[in-house]
Amino acid sequence: MKMKEAKCTDKNCPIHGTLRTRGRSFVGRVISAKMHRTVVIEFERIHYLAKYERYEKRRIRLKAHNPDCISASEGDIVKVVECRPLSKTKHFVVVEKRSEK
């Protein structure tokens, strides 16, 4: 995916800044982009219940840093990667915006 040609001055941008990424990565849908440079990502996972020998769907919601050069909005599908803690609840950063199917 092509990035915007505008100058990115965000020091916590993994592409143009100095933020290092590591660990886990997820793909999810942005459900809220109301905070400044922060988005809430949601995705589903399957959890096995041994007692009933069946699976159930569970949702995970993460807060992720949204750099200016990516600027994901509500409804976008994005890839997030783990990084150092950026705030009390923000430990992920958006690295790319994926095209919807």
Radius of gyration: 15 Å
Total number of helical segments?
A: 0
Run of helices and strands = EEEEE
The total strand number stands at: 5
Largest sheet: 5 strands, mixed, barrel
Report the CATH architecture: Beta Barrel
Strand content range = over 45%
Distance between the termini: 14 Å
SS-based class: mainly beta
Query: Mean pLDDT across all residues, rounded?
Result: 91
Tell me the name of the CATH class.
Mainly Beta
Low-confidence blocks of residues = none
Strand order of the biggest β-sheet: 1-2-3-5-4
Shape: elongated
Briefly note the CATH topology name: OB fold (Dihydrolipoamide Acetyltransferase, E2P)
Helix content: under 10%
The structural domain count equals 1
